[in-house]
Amino acid sequence: MELTTIYLHTRFQVDRVDPRIFGGFLEHIGRAVYEGVYEPDSRHADEDGCRQDVMAALKRQHMTAMRYPGGNFASGYHWMDGVGPKDQRPTVRELAWQSIEPNTFGTDEFIRLCRKMDWTPMLTVNLGTGTPEEARNWVEYCNCPPGTKYADMRAAHAQETPYAVDLWCLGNEMDGPWQLGHVPADQYAIRAQQAAKMMKDVDQSIELVACGSCSVDMFETYMEWDRQVLDYLGDYADYISLHRYVGNRENDTPDYLAITNSIDRQIEEMDAVCRFVQAKRRSKKRVYLCFDEWNIWYKNHETDGEGKFAPHLVEEIYNLEDALVAAGFLNSFVRHADSVKIANIAQIVNVIAPLITQGDDLLIQSIFYPLEMFARRQNGIALQTAVAGPGYDSTHNGRVTYIDTSAILDEKTLHVFISNRSMDEEAEVCISLEDNAISKLENAELLTGGGDPKAANSFENPDVVGTKSFTDVQFTNGKARFILPPLSVAAMSLKTID
Ligand code: AHR
Predict the structure, then answer these.
(1) Residue of minimum CA distance from atom 9 in ligand 1
(2) 366 and 484 fall within a common domain
(3) Total structural domains in the chain?
(4) In whole angstroms, how far apart are CA 124 and each of 64, 234, 261, 343, 346?
(5) Domain end point (choices 378, 403, 424)
(6) Which structural domain, as residue segments, surrounds residue 424?
(7) Is the same domain home to 430 and 298?
(8) Domain identity same for 401 and 368
(9) Which end of the chain is more exposed for a tag (fewer CB within 10 A), N or C?
(10) Residues of the chain with pLDDT > 70: what percent?
(11) Are 139 and 121 in contact (CB under 8 A)?
């Protein structure tokens, strides 16, 4: 394959990368909470019943904002069911996933887990079957000093010091007909505005995420929903949510890997509607993007819990091509650091997740690695990227270069992420920092899986797809040159001279 050159310039900056783009999502669905992060009977359980093996693996992902408790689950969840002495909490039939919810893991347990993991909690209020007042009460429970009803409850149940939860989502996927309490945009906007006002009346410092379109192609309301909601919510909205699940449904790997074009476009379209409404309202406030559900999801569609506790739901198995697509999402978020401020992989364990538990065992799936490679290099300013090199025309997603990339400058360290989308050819790559020289390699990893797009880890063979240290980088005239195998992802930290 012809040489690909990635052109960068330290002055051509996008914006500082918000660490919250390396967020996660923990929902009460399937075995995500129970048998996932929380399993008091496991031999891995700590003093709070949380699985230490799962926590240790998640720590490697340096996740930041953690969204909880859903998802669709949130639209039927009454947070009061999940606080107080565990033996007095009700077991309920929950309707999002038709499962049994014992409520033994709730707000206090989640916040304790966040503290252990260094996660920023991000709570989704129930705007499906819940009321704006219930949402407001939850803010008081979490954020107010003792002295009033709900804050006193927290002090009695768990701790006197407020939890200081800064980020709150105003419901979940309310444009989707499957959502409990789904309503048209104008009615959601009214509900969300009422909740937002009361929530901010309790704590002015919180930031709110309005429900945006949950799909780019399922509903005719795409963009119009968002316009209406933003227009009505006005300055109450700090962020609007985007969701995206992709898959190789036609078994067309080159097209699947070119999905990055469509992700870029989704972000740019949502940013455009935010700017349109801002201009129309003549507001000084820019609403930013919160990509609070993203992942690959198309192989497993078991979503009916059939009235069971912790059923096996949507336990997707991930392969090498999925890992390249996960890297593609992250590249896109970094490239749009000026608009995307929060992003959460959906989800973190067992349910469409990088980790799977089986009894006391834990499996690391292919999509775990891009997250680990990016998140450990998350500090700095995203740079604009210009890629000159060979490419291809994909079936549905337009033309892409074989190389997909993003870059973050952290003072004299330059982090570059590079995927080779070719299925059969090595890619020779040159990184040229136009106004500076690259002097040496600090460290780098390479994600591979032997070039087979369908290669996947399993409990029997857990190391088919994984990372290894990458050192084969040459430096000539201040530029870095290296060769990437087909279907691989490299993350490198390079030293600049000035
Ligand atoms: O992440 C699984 C589900 O996908 C979420 O609950 C919902 O918001 C989305 O449809």
Answers:
(1) 71
(2) no
(3) 2
(4) 16, 20, 29, 14, 14
(5) 378
(6) 4-10+382-496
(7) no
(8) no
(9) C
(10) 100
(11) no
DSSP assignment of 398-433? -EEESEEEEEEEETTEEEEEEEE--SS--EEEEEEE
Q: What is the mean pLDDT of the chain?
A: 97
pLDDT at 99: 98
CATH of the domain at 489: 2.60.40.1180
Q: Which of 307, 284, 489 is nearest to 406 (CA)?
A: 489
pLDDT at 498: 73
Q: Determine which residue's CA is closest to atom 1 belonging to ligand 1.
A: 346
Q: How far is the CA of 134 from the centre of ligand 1 (A)?
A: 22
Per residue in 322-358, pLDDT (tens digit) is 999 999 999 999 999 999 999 999 999 999 999 999 9
Record the tokens describing residue 301, joined without a space: 């569609």
Write down the catalytic residue from 134, 293, 321, 372: 293
- Distance, CA 497 to ligand 1 centroid (Å)? 46
Q: Is there an atom of ligand 1 within 6 Å of 346 CB? A: yes
Task: Kindly state whether residues 369 and 386 are assigned to the same domain.
Answer: no
pLDDT band at 244 (very low <50, low <70, confident <90, very high): very high
Strand pairing class (167-170; 120-124): parallel
Answer with the one of 344, 362, 378 that is the final residue of a domain. Answer: 378
Instruction: Report the CATH number at residue 248.
Output: 3.20.20.80
Give me the half-sphere count of Cα atoms (radius 13 Å) on the Cβ side of residue 390.
11
pLDDT digits (tens, 9 = 90+) for 58-102: 999 999 999 999 999 999 999 999 999 999 999 999 999 999 999
